[in-house]
Amino acid sequence: MAAITIEGVSKRFGAAMALEHLDLTVTDGEFVALLGPSGCGKTTLLRIIAGLETRSSGRVLIGDQDVSDLPPAKRGLAMVFQNYAVFPHLTVFENVAFGLRMQKRDEATIQRQVKRAADLLQIGPYLDRYPAKLSGGQRQRVAVARALAVEPAVLLMDEPLSNLDALLRLEMRAELKSVLKEAGTTTLYVTHDQTEAMGLADRIAVMYKGVIEQIDTPTRIYSKPSSTFVGGFVGSPPMNFLSMTASAGRLACAGFSMPLAHEGPVLLGFRGEDVALVKADQGLGFEVRVIEPMGSHLLLTGMVKGERVRVVAAPQAEIERGMTLGLQLDAARVVVMDTQTGKAL
Amino acid sequence: MPTSRWLPYMLIAPASVFLAVFFAVPLVQTIVLSFDGGTAGFLGNYQRMLNDLNFNVSIRNTFMLVLTVVPLQMMLAIGMGLMLQKMQKGRELVLWIWTIPLGVSDLAAGLVWLAILQNTGYLNTLLFHMGVIDSPTAWLNAETPVTLFIAVVVAEIWRSTAVVLVIIVAGLQLIPKEFGEAAEIFGAGRWQKFTRVTLPMLKPSLQSALILRTVLAFEVFAAVYAIGGRNIPVLVGEAYVWQRENQNYSVAAAYAVLIMVISLAATAVYLRLLREKPEAQA
């Protein structure tokens, strides 16, 4: 086990800046998810840590050791790939044993550690089979077992669940979490799926255009996004933003008011489930345009002062299209962003 | 619709008819001809072939050429293919240049190497000007069988490695790069990565390339004939001599059938040796 420290890592592809002077620390035993849309640089960062990609500047430390210029094998890490990269010409046993064999460990150790990893991921019955005879989920388990068998200081995972179907993904997610908690391995996990990041990670680093926008616990990332990007990217429905103007120490309009030490235009952000639906004259006027029954709740899309807003209502709420309701916001649960920079004030 | 039922058959008909007329029929005729020994009986032509003064030496030369050329070509092509994989820029250009010999007929290739290696050829001229030799040296005589053999090997490698290369390059491109990366991460060195991951995953392509090249190598003739004439007898060359000079089509047919049998046997051996375990197929 070891911590991962990224110090000022940058990566240029020609003129394009893929990573811009990035700092990140994953503490010993911690699970951090790198979350962001495609092209945000999250996979590039993971590959730089793995040693599969060169960096333009900066340092990568694993534990106390600067591994920036070491080949992948010397960094004490293991990796799980998006397409699993389970060797088709080797049995499941030999796949899991691959890293140990490369380290020239003795046969008893190989047998013991393969068995341990196989038990942990419940692939014991398939050890003699070839990967072609396994389902996607089972291959995924083999890939994770191969990574854990070498008892790595650090485990890197690149969208490991994205090739599985939805139900299997849900199942593997929970299992992965318990397996990794048990192994206690420091893990950096790349994903574009926010529910995966929220469900698995101790902390989430939200990346956008080569920088880390915010790194925090899933709960705080969700409720206190540091920028309009994070608020809009994390959560379904995404956070609502209303354009407002603050003056005289207050942010106020018809139906809402809160103290704010800022002058001028701002964005008021709030989550769709953080509002109370009240009568039209008691809150922000909300004209219902679309009602989507989602089973556990109703998703309402409508307009507030000419801007689109999505809110969540109880499944039995008697709401019809065209109605005007009032939205009551809790000042403790809103975020205020600078209109220009999109950053939280 | 009735047309749609017959359409597939109609579409493959031209190719089938062409193959039947120009391949299957001559094949059967050749086999029949080879067993038509007249007064000498059923195996008479084969008897004459076996008793031929050049038979043993042509068998030996052909096998020596195949066993030298094909392994060297495989190694070269794999090496070249791996180098191409590493190239960032100009890959297409290099591949294009490397495959130019594909467009040269084997007789022309033989003549090119003859022009280089004969007494008054480019090699001797160069060596003479460099002061290495005092007078033109013969490389391609019956008296210099080793250099003659080497010359044929070089010409064959130059001429036909590109076929293997094209197959290997296509095979290498089919291996997702994550396999090599996974091998690296889990501690495989270059050699281990090559032997434990790349080579096994390349097996289907190696099999195709080996079969194709070996079958063609057993049919080696034009380049040999251009460079060495009859100083280095090979099987197809003997078939040619029996047909052209001896005007004996039947013994030539026996040679042809023998070459076919050898090719089929080699193919069977490759298929067996390089067979993928059915459960390991991706």
What does this structure look like?
The complex is a heterodimer of chains A (345) and B (282). Chain A has 2 domains: 4-232, Rossmann fold (3-Layer(aba) Sandwich), CATH 3.40.50; 237-338, OB fold (Dihydrolipoamide Acetyltransferase, E2P) (Beta Barrel). Chain A has helices spanning 42-50, 92-102, 107-120, 136-149, 166-183, 194-200, 218-223, 228-233; strands at 4-13, 16-26, 31-35, 57-62, 65-66, 77-80, 154-158, 186-191, 203-208, 211-216, 240-247, 250-253, 256-259, 264-270, 275-278, 284-293, 298-304, 307-313, 324-329, 335-338. Chain A has 8 helices and 20 strands. The mean pLDDT of chain A is 92. By secondary structure, chain A is an alpha+beta fold. Chain A is elongated and about 75 Å long. Chain B has 282 residues and is mainly alpha-helical. Helix content of chain B is 74%, strand content 0%. Chain B has 13 helices and no strands. Chain B is globular, with a radius of gyration of 23 Å. Classes of the chains: A alpha+beta (345), B mainly alpha (282). Chain A binds chain B through residues 50-52, 71-73, 77-79, 81-83, 85, 87-89, 98-99, 102-103, 129-133, 146, 150, and chain B through 176, 178-179, 181-189, 192, 197, 200-201, 203, 277, 279-282.
